[in-house]
Amino acid sequence: MFAVFKTGGKQYRVAAEDVLKVAKLKGERGEIVEFGEVLVVGGDSVTLGAPTVAGATVAAEVLDQARGPKIIAFKKRRRKNSRRKRGFREEFTLIRITEILTDGKKANKDVQPRPKRAPAPAAEAGAETAEAAEGATAKKAKKAPKAKAKAPAARAKPKNKPKGKPKK
């Protein structure tokens, strides 16, 4: 099932578990936000809105409130000694779509955050990995930083050399 909804002047086509950046929304990390301006709901049968689908909402969990990369607006008028440099970082909200609701249903507000993945379990052969780990630490120990060679000393200026142009 997918939906097309509108927020921040843009339209997004989403399905459950999609992660996307939208313009800044009110809400703290972990909160559930709802988007009521759903334009299309698709799946087995597609429902087009005129202009929106009645009773359809898209629920999403706020993952993060952040700022994008700095954009530099530099303007220069040549031969006029006129320059302007301005930096700007757009604020955005990172969301994960939790569910697409139809028929006026309400979002489940107590959605638990997804658990983080556990690292891959260690190999069964413990002795082999222990030997490999010891070998890796030995290699690191061998690659100790080398002492840098000192640069040659700066040449001393002769003390009795006259400054300026030579006299004739």
> In angstroms, what separates the terminal alpha carbons?
97 Å
Strands across the major sheet, in which order?
2-1-5-6
| Model regions low in confidence, pLDDT < 50 over at least 5 residues | none
Q: Could you state the oligomeric state of the chains shown?
A: single chain
**Approximately how much helix is present in the residues?**
10-25%
Describe the overall structure:
The protein is mainly beta. It has a domain at 2-101. The protein has one helix and ten strands, in the order ββββββββββα. It has one helix at residues 126-142, and strands at residues 2-7, 10-15, 19-23, 32-35, 38-42, 47-48, 57-67, 71-77, 82-88, 91-101. β5 and β6 (47-48) form a beta hairpin. It is elongated and about 105 Å long. The N and C termini lie far apart (97 Å). The mean pLDDT is 82.
Summarize the structure.
The protein is built from one helix and ten strands, in the order ββββββββββα.
Question: What would the keywords be for this entry?
Answer:
4-stranded antiparallel beta sheet, 10 strands, about 170 residues, mainly beta, elongated, single chain
